[in-house]
Amino acid sequence: MAEIDKPLKELNEKEEFSALVNWALNKLPPFHSMDLRQRASGVIYQTSLHKCGRQVRVGKPMVKTDFPGTIVYDWPEEVKYDTLGVDVITRSTLRADIINVAKMKGKLLTAQQVTELANPQINWNDQPQVETPQIKLVQTERNCWDVVLTEEERNLLSEFLDV
User: What are the pLDDT digits (tens) for 85-107?
Assistant: First the structure.
């Protein structure tokens, strides 16, 4: 990477790909994974990189989209190589997917609309309330706690284990 302080949004696709591969090899935390995309002949390919200790495993490349005018990533303005992270990469691919789907449908979304679609606000009060059963515990002579199951819970467990 020649310009490490340049925002990723200002890089061309070749520089962007180089920066992401370099970041994956040198800064991707162990036991984490990320999606890596590249455009070749107008087609966007995606693969996943998994870091296991000091090794990086690469998944099978798949065609993500071949619709003309699609974007590979949608980076926030302030993101640079040093501020890159797995969560930033994941959000950028999600935002790019939202923009690409809208383009395929002939729509242009504003940044606010993309943000609203990427971060839906869930109204938890509208969700049906499920009653959580209370667990019954009994203390043993060894100062341990045993779970006491009802007959119905035992039947459900045995049915599940028998399947």
Answer: 999 999 999 999 999 999 999 99
